[in-house]
Write a structure and sequence with these properties.
The chain is α+β, with helices and mostly antiparallel strands. Helix content is 35%, strand content 15%. It contains five helices and eight strands, in the order H-E-E-E-E-E-E-H-H-H-E-E-H. The strands form three sheets. The chain has a four-stranded antiparallel β-sheet with strand order 6-5-7-8. It has a two-stranded antiparallel sheet with strand order 1-2.
């Protein structure tokens, strides 16, 4: 018995299903690419590190491939490998889909390879004022923290041995605005493919206390 040919209705339905599948496949591929793409947080694109464990002690928790800050004021000074630090203020955890300028106030400046902390703070205050008036009450108590911590961060960065043929290490300095303010070196290399520096992290974590400045 010869196999029956598909009916006209079956052929029509198969075409409709094919036409429906193509845009769904394209949309899924776009979504997948978006999930795997570098994130742009406060002007700084980065990939998710292979291991977040060294951040958990600070109250900073991973959220997918975002860094999700605990709901305490956090100042981050980021060196993105081109010599220009980025300064970001986050008041609340930013939403997973991006930075809300009111819920997660982020201010970033990367125009000067060696910015003056006072100038950066002036611009930060103005920017935060424009975005969220009540954020100033969070920013002001930690101005001195940022100013005191930047020299220490630069000293540590300068002390690290350069590796020929490799981009300058990315350095993340985190100041947690809790009862005891301290700085922690919490980044290395280009985040991906870089050797972990847990021993250095543990060593620097205790040595960069604000009590010493």
């Amino acid at each position: 018995m010869l196999p029956q040919r598909p009916t006209h209705r079956a052929r029509v339905w198969s075409r409709y299903l094919l036409l429906l599948f193509i845009p769904l496949a394209i949309a899924f591929k776009a979504w997948l690419d978006h999930q795997n793409a570098p994130r742009d947080v406060a002007g700084f694109s980065f990939h998710r590190p292979a291991d977040w464990s060294y951040l958990t002690e600070t109250g900073i928790k991973p959220d997918g491939d975002h860094i999700r800050f605990a709901p305490a004021a956090v100042i981050a000074a980021l060196d993105h490998g081109q010599g220009a630090p980025l300064f970001a203020l986050t008041k609340y955890p930013p939403p997973h889909t991006g930075i809300n300028p009111v819920i997660g106030v982020n201010v970033a400046y990367a125009t000067d390879p060696d910015p003056d902390p006072g100038v950066v703070l002036e611009h930060s205050v103005a920017e935060v004022q424009a975005r969220s008036g009540d954020a100033l009450e969070v920013l002001e108590p930690i101005n001195e923290t940022l100013v005191a911590g930047l020299p220490a961060a630069r000293t540590v960065l300068a002390a690290r041995e350069p590796q020929p043929g490799k981009a300058r290490d990315r350095l993340t300095v985190l100041a947690i605005a809790t009862g005891h303010l301290s700085f922690l070196i919490a980044g290395s290399g280009a985040y991906e493919g870089a050797d972990r520096i847990d021993e250095q992290l543990a060593e620097f974590a205790g040595s960069l206390s604000l009590d010493r400045y």
